[in-house]
Amino acid sequence: MARDIHRIMPHKDGGWQVKRDGGKRASHVADTKAEAEKIGREISRNQGTELQIQNLDGKIIRSDSHGNDPRGRG
Known about the structure:
Region (Disordered): 1-36
Structural class: alpha+beta
Shape: globular
Mean pLDDT: 90
Low-confidence stretches: none
Number of helices: 1
Protein name: DUF2188 domain-containing protein
Strand order of the largest sheet: 3-2-1-4-5
Distance between the termini: 16 Å
Strand content: 25-35%
Number of strands: 5
């Protein structure tokens, strides 16, 4: 089953955005990456999604699970 994911990524108009996969627009846009991470982490925890944080080049540098993580079962 595919996971719902929120991503912290550069925004096309500057700053950083919090965006859910499949969404057409950013949930939030912040001036700094740290601010976007704080907002994104709260949203991800509330909605039980995966949170992926990207660099300026789009590479994922960190991923945190805030939902039912299937990797821990066995």
